[in-house]
Write a sequence for this structure.
């Protein structure tokens, strides 16, 4: 039972409650840094680290932090992890850090992270909170990656910097510009909503069939 | 969370203490990560700078930092903070080749920082490398991704000043083809170089009297002449 619950918390972030495609949170980094797959992965990893670290601490100290100052405490914890991620990226992969620029410090303001602390980590035991954070962060990473991959392939003819189509490919430049982010996101959201609509329709059909049988 | 509202909540002291402890721990963590990554970050920056200097000055294999003090260019080990620095480039035997000049100015979206190689004898720019920019991906970022634009700086006269012209209309040695679709960024690069050149040209010594290469402490040899 316990194991199932933590599995459930993990899976929901990737699909059913995907932070980007279902909750539509964290749109700012989502649209800004997904102009190439590698940037998307770096941003996703940084967010993963910050979210899991913060959820762990917030959940562990949830009974110590007075509720009047909880938001300030969450922000202090998140900002610390963001600074650590910032300096680590700067030291290890300066090129990627340069590309992401201002968006690393701005992870602090990602409502997905604060939202998970307030809605989940501060109310549930550490293990569940970490599973929830890992699920949400993986969902975020996958969403960034799918957007980044589509935009890089169409806008640059490459994936992870590897040229896919050779010399004659005419890059669809708009895809790596901001409008490309909106276009791609819109199409993916359309798919998610269509899928949900079809699923609801199917469930209704099943329910109707069951009713008529009985 | 643990203290129900009806009991009046925790004391102010507890709130202040909680935040103080959180801030203290957070501060320590940040100092720790700053101190432990600083050497790598400084080394990365120094390596990047060296590579950029060697790139904008073809044929250069040694460099030293130069600053303008009391009316002349002097060689310094460590320039003071906020002091404008240029780099002298020297070939293998230690002969002066040219200057690598850092310059920065407003671009289309944000400050563009660049480094350009300058040969005072010929009064030619011989190379240009963008160090920092946030120009539009796909358009403005061609100022460092477009090989023909960057290559245009490999032999460019600064007399009377560099002019960016429409692509394909370059006819003078001081003209460079601007990038189609990124005219503002191209012109910004040219303007930055012109401004830096104007600011420095009076301070550079006459050609032939450039500061000699000072031997690095690693080789231990005496400075030549």
């Amino acid at each position: 039972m316990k194991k199932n619950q933590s599995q459930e918390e993990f899976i929901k972030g990737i699909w059913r409650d995907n932070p980007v495609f279902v909750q539509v949170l964290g749109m700012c980094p989502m649209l800004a840094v997904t102009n190439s797959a590698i940037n998307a992965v770096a941003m996703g990893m940084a967010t993963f680290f910050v979210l899991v670290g913060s959820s762990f601490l917030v959940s562990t100290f949830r009974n110590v932090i007075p509720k009047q100052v909880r938001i300030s405490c969450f922000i202090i914890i998140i900002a610390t992890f963001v600074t650590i991620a910032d300096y680590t990226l700067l030291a290890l992969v300066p090129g990627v850090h340069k590309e992401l620029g201002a968006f690393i410090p701005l992870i602090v303001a990602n409502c997905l992270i604060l939202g998970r602390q307030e809605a989940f980590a501060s109310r549930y035991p550490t293990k569940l909170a970490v599973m929830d954070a890992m699920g949400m962060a993986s969902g975020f990473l996958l969403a960034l990656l799918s957007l980044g991959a589509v935009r890089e392939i169409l806008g640059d003819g490459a994936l992870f910097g590897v040229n896919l189509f050779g010399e004659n490919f005419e890059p669809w430049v708009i895809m790596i510009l901001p409008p490309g982010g909106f276009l791609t996101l819109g199409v993916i959201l359309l798919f998610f909503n269509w899928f949900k609509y079809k699923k609801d329709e199917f469930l209704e059909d099943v329910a109707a069939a069951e009713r008529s049988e009985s | 969370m643990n203290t129900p509202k009806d009991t009046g909540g925790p004391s102010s002291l507890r709130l202040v203490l909680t935040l103080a402890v959180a801030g203290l721990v957070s501060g320590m963590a940040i100092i720790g990560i700053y101190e432990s990554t600083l050497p790598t970050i400084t080394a990365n920056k120094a390596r990047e700078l060296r590579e950029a200097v060697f790139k904008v000055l073809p044929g250069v294999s040694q460099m030293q930092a130069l600053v303008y003090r009391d009316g002349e260019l002097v060689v310094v080990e460590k320039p003071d903070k906020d002091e404008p620095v240029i780099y002298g480039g020297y070939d293998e035997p230690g002969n002066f080749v040219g200057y690598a000049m850092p310059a920065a100015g407003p671009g289309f979206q944000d400050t563009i920082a660049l480094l350009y190689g300058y040969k005072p004898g010929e009064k030619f720019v011989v190379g240009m490398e963008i160090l920092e920019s946030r120009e539009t991906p796909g358009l403005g970022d061609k100022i460092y991704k477009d090989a023909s634009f960057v290559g245009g700086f490999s032999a460019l006269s600064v007399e009377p000043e560099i002019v960016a012209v429409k692509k394909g209309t370059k006819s003078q040695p001081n003209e460079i083809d601007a990038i189609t679709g990124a005219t503002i960024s191209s012109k910004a690069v040219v303007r930055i170089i012109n401004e830096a050149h104007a600011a420095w040209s009076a301070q550079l010594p006459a050609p032939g009297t450039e500061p000699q290469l000072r031997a690095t402490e690693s080789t231990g040899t005496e400075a030549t002449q």
